[in-house]
Predict the structure.
Amino acid sequence: MEKLIITAAICGAEVTKQHNPAVPYTVEEIGREAYAAYKAGASIIHLHVREDDGTPTQSKERFAACAAEISKLCPDVIIQPSTGGAVGMSNDERLQPLELNPEIATLDCGTCNFGGDDIFVNTENMIKDFGKRMIERGIKPECEVFDKGMIDMANRLQKKGFIEKPMHFNLVMGVNGGISGEPRDLIFMQESLPQGSTFTVSGIGRTQAAMSTMAIILGGHVRVGFEDNVYIKKGVLAKSNADFVEKVAHIAEAFGREIATPDEARKILSIERKKN
Ligand code: KMH
Ligand code: ZN
C-alpha cells in the first residue's frame, strides 16, 4: 500500500478559542501549530487564516505572511490554502490565496447545509470558475466533497475540462447537512470515485477516529486537526493539532502503513514542488 499522507487542518474558519483555547489565530500561533503537526508526521497543512482576534479572512497578505512563517519552520511542507474560506464570503474574497500560486488548494464541489441557517454555497458555475483558475495557475485541486453527488459533479466537470486528472478528493464525512460518517458511507464514497483518483478522509467530530482508521485500511489518506474536531477523545480537548497527527500515526503503525514525507506526498498526488 502507498505511504500515508497526513494532512493537518490546523485552524479552519469556524472553530474558535471558545471551542478549544489551542486553536491558532495569529501568524505566530499558526506557524507553531503547523510545525508541531509537521514534526508529528503531517506532510500537508490545510490552511485557513485569521485576523489576530480570530475573525476569518481570505486576505492574500495574511495568507502570504502565514505561509512564510510555516515555510520558515517547515521548509518542505505542502501548504494547501482553502478557497472555501468561511460561510458567507464572496467568491472574490475566497479566491485570493490562488494569487500566491500554491501547489495545491481546495476546490469545494457542491453547496451544503452547514447547520442552522448556514449554507456553504458552491454553485456549478463557481466550481467551473475556481477549477479553471487552478488549471491556469498550475494548482492541483483537492476536491472537497461532502456528499456522493459532489463526487459526480467533480467527475462531470473533469470530463468538461474544468478539473484535470489524476483527481484528488477529500471525502468529508459527518458534516451537519452532508453524508454521515458511518463505515458504509465511506465505502460508498470510495467506490463512487473515478478510477485512478487518490483520496483523503476528514471525519468530522466524533466520527474522526473510525473514519481515519478506515481510510488507513482502505488505502486512502487522512486529514485531522482543529478544523474538523477539537476533542482528542470523548470529553478531552486536544492540546495541539500534533495530538491528532500522533494518534493517526500510531494507528497507521498498528496497520503497518508508513507515513509519507512531503516529497513522497507530492509524488503520490502528482504535484510538483514549487518554491514556498
Ligand atoms: N469553512 C468552510 C465553510 C475548504 O477549506 O475548502 C469551508 C471549508 C472548505 O473549510
Ligand atoms: Zn477548510
Notes: The chain has one domain: 6-269.
